[in-house]
Write a structure and sequence with these properties.
By secondary structure, this protein is of the alpha/beta class. The chain has one domain: FAD/NAD(P)-binding domain. It contains four helices and eleven strands; from the N terminus they run E-H-E-E-E-H-E-E-E-E-H-E-E-E-H. Strands 1, 2, 5, 6, 7, 8 and 11 form a seven-stranded mixed β-sheet that branches. A two-stranded antiparallel sheet has the order 3-4. One of its GO terms (molecular function) is oxidoreductase activity. InterPro entries: FAD/NAD-bd_sf, FAD/NAD-binding_dom, Ferredoxin-NADP_redctase_2. Its cofactor is FAD. This is FAD-binding protein.
Amino acid sequence: MFEVAIIGGGPAGGSAAIFTAKAGKKTVVIDSNQGVTKRAMLWNHYGVEEITGPNLVETGLNQARKFGAEVVESKVTSIVKADEGFTITTENGEFEAKHIILATGFLTDLAESIGLATKPGTEPRVKTIFDVDAAGKTNVEGIWAAGTCAGVSVHTIITAGDGAKVAINVISELNGERYVDHDVLK
């Protein structure tokens, strides 16, 4: 069983995976390869002069892999509450996880099947978002949401930051105390 399953491998999901995997949490990223970032050209991402969306996503997922995250390309077809956590069914198999972070961008079609509350989106072209609290929690215990699907701006720098924030909140809950990740120069 995975401690954290992240559905969506764009900036929010990839960033969340970097933090959860680096914190030693058994992490899987399930990505359907449908993200809008894969069609983007970025000149406004802090710390990077310019980068294509596909390169940004690839770099982020490679960072997550470096810390031990498993990355699977598949589409999630259902999420079902299990005795301990959730069973996530994809087109290519099943995964079990204690916590789920939804980082699905514009896609909220999983909401109805698991009973997640939604509300109208505020970003252009984003019709529906998951209804989350300030920590990223949804109304279903153990399911969190980050990035555009949680109502933050579609800009990659913002969705990546939101993914990191939600991951830190999940790690903190798993650890039973506030988690902080700071590396220092040696």
